[in-house]
Every structure is written in C-alpha cells, then in structure tokens.
Amino acid sequence: MEEETTTAPPTPVATDISNSTKALDPTLQKKHQAMLDRLSIRHQTRSKSSSSTTDSTASFLSKFSDFKRSIEFQLAESSKLASTDPTRLKSHLVNISNSISSLEQLVAENSYFLPSYELRSSLKTVAELKLSLENLHSELVPKKKFSFKNKSTSKTPISEPKENEIAKPETPKPIFTIKDSPGIRNKVNEILTKNFRGSEIGEFTISDLDSCEVRLIGCIGALFVNRLRNCKVYAGPVIGSILIEEVENSIFVLASHQIRIHYARESDFYLRVRSRPIIEDCGGVRFAPYCLSYEGIEEDLKEAGLEEETGNWSNVDDFKWLRAVQSPNWSVLEVSERLEGVEIKDGSENGRS
C-alpha cells in the first residue's frame, strides 16, 4: 500500500507575516529593510568594537604589570645601593622617578579604551609607587646641613628679562592622538551641522574651533574633541566613547556609554552616560543632565542603548583628586542656571535657558 503524503498547512503566524509583508507598500518595504540592515550593521560594529577593546585592555594590563614589577624591583634595590654605592643613589632615584612618569603616561595614552575600574586601579597603583619613592628619598637621601655662608660684598645688578625671555605657560602634553577620521577642524565663528541619520559613521573628530556651534544629528561610533574655545557642541548619541581634551569656556550636550575629559576649564557638560564621567586636570567644570532633542532622537538613543537616564551625569570621578572629600574641580550646575532644553535641526537651533 502506498503511503499517503500530506502537506501541513502554513501556521497562522507564518501566514500573517506573509500576508502583512505582501500588503506593505514597496516604499515602506524598502525603508523597513534598510532599518533592519542598519540595525544589523550596528550590532556587528558593537561586537567588533567590544572584541577589540578586550584585546587592547589585555595587552595594556600585561605591559602595565611588567612595568610595575620593574619599578618595584628598582625600589627594592635602593636600600642596598645606599649602603654599597651611595654615590649612585641619587641618579638611581631619578631613574625610578622617570620610570614612574613613563608608567603614568602609558596609562594616560590608553585611557580611551580602558574600563573605568581598570583605569582607576592603574592610577591608584601609580600614586602608590610615587608615595613609595618619596618615602625612600626621605629615608635614604640625607638632608643638607644648614650653614652660614659669607655673602659676597659685590652685588650683580638684576636686569629685567627681555620680552623674548619671558617664560610662557607650558602647553599640556596631549593625552590622546587626534584621529585621522572624518570631522570638523580649524573653524572660527561658524555654525556647523552634520546629519548622520541613515548612514554609518565610525569615529568623528572635532578640533581647533573658536566661537563655533556644532550640531551632530544621529548616531556616531566614537567622538574625539580637542582644542575648543567659546564653543557649543550639541551631539546625538555616541555608541562607544567620547574623549575631550583642552576645551575652555564651552558648552557640551552629549550622550555616550563612556565620557572622559582632560584639561577642561570653565565649561558646562550636559550628559547622559552609562558609566561615571571621568575628569583629569580640569577646573571650573559643571555638570547637568542631557537636554537635547531633534526629530528621531528617541530612536537613535534606543539604537545606541542610551534610552534610559542613569543619573551618572552627577557621579563624576576626578582622577587627580584622591581625597575622600568632594573635588573642588567640578560641581553640579544649579537648576536655575541650566538650559531648559536644546532643539536642533539641520538649518536652525532653538535653545531655551
């Protein structure tokens, strides 16, 4: 007897989806597919970025550990050297100091991708090594004895310094290298707008601006900001990190998973951030919650994983202030002084303060 073959009818769910898809207007189908493709690319980008960050962190921790052990060995050798060859002790301690400075620079150069815990732990280790060196120096290097010296009867007149001899303030050493990425650079007194919605943008750089207003609409992978004066920067969500350096008298409205700020002076930051904001070598900086709006921002925030307000905008870590009391370098912006909201468009911006 031949077996009777039957074909199972399509399930209601499959039928509904099929009918729904056929019912869609061709234009809507294209838009729907484009959105799915964009979400897929964002997911892949996040996965690659996460893998790259993990590898970079592991490499840094290995280098940091080797460097730390070398310095600890040098510190341990100091006491032996003081008893066997005291003439070399001073140069030996100078070498240790230089090694600690190099270790601190290693941390600074890699701070962009390091998780907050690893960065905080590394800086604490550097501070402890500095303290150990100071204690050794006080213990091993004898203080000079006080003695009276005959003063010379002839005095050399002190001349006024020439104009070209006047010392200038030292320019801070950059913490990070400006990326050769798409960006806005070298502008004065301009309104600059970029709309990234519907496109994929990885890293974006804003640098060397004076008295400018920058409006960034849509999602960005990572944002680098360097050397801004008297500027306003309004940006949609950043999927990765934001790194800011050498800014003065400016306003920033930013949303990101991680934000680090170096050498900022007299500037306000309106933030939405997943982790605690980090500041270093800053002064007079104030913080408030994110207050930006534009058409489609809710969708962008959701895609970037920043749809929820965490309250971390006010949980600021000052890595140059290790005491238990509040750092004097930053404060929460008074409600009466905050912007009520900033709305941006491609051609116009309406801010209410």
TrEMBL record:
<dbReference type="InterPro" id="IPR038397">
    <property type="entry name" value="TBCC_N_sf"/>
</dbReference>
<dbReference type="InterPro" id="IPR012945">
    <property type="entry name" value="Tubulin-bd_cofactor_C_dom"/>
</dbReference>
<comment type="similarity">
    <text>Belongs to the TBCC family.</text>
</comment>
<comment type="subunit">
    <text>Supercomplex made of cofactors A to E. Cofactors A and D function by capturing and stabilizing tubulin in a quasi-native conformation. Cofactor E binds to the cofactor D-tubulin complex; interaction with cofactor C then causes the release of tubulin polypeptides that are committed to the native state.</text>
</comment>
<dbReference type="InterPro" id="IPR006599">
    <property type="entry name" value="CARP_motif"/>
</dbReference>
<dbReference type="GO" id="GO:0007021">
    <property type="term" value="P:tubulin complex assembly"/>
</dbReference>
<feature type="domain" description="C-CAP/cofactor C-like">
    <location>
        <begin position="168"/>
        <end position="321"/>
    </location>
</feature>
<keyword id="KW-0963">Cytoplasm</keyword>
<dbReference type="GO" id="GO:0005737">
    <property type="term" value="C:cytoplasm"/>
</dbReference>
<keyword id="KW-0143">Chaperone</keyword>
<dbReference type="InterPro" id="IPR027684">
    <property type="entry name" value="TBCC"/>
</dbReference>
<dbReference type="GO" id="GO:0015631">
    <property type="term" value="F:tubulin binding"/>
</dbReference>
<dbReference type="Pfam" id="PF16752">
    <property type="entry name" value="TBCC_N"/>
</dbReference>
<dbReference type="InterPro" id="IPR017901">
    <property type="entry name" value="C-CAP_CF_C-like"/>
</dbReference>
<protein>
    <recommendedName>
        <fullName>C-CAP/cofactor C-like domain-containing protein</fullName>
    </recommendedName>
</protein>
<dbReference type="InterPro" id="IPR031925">
    <property type="entry name" value="TBCC_N"/>
</dbReference>
<dbReference type="GO" id="GO:0007023">
    <property type="term" value="P:post-chaperonin tubulin folding pathway"/>
</dbReference>
<feature type="region of interest" description="Disordered">
    <location>
        <begin position="1"/>
        <end position="23"/>
    </location>
</feature>
<keyword id="KW-0007">Acetylation</keyword>
<dbReference type="InterPro" id="IPR016098">
    <property type="entry name" value="CAP/MinC_C"/>
</dbReference>
<dbReference type="Pfam" id="PF07986">
    <property type="entry name" value="TBCC"/>
</dbReference>
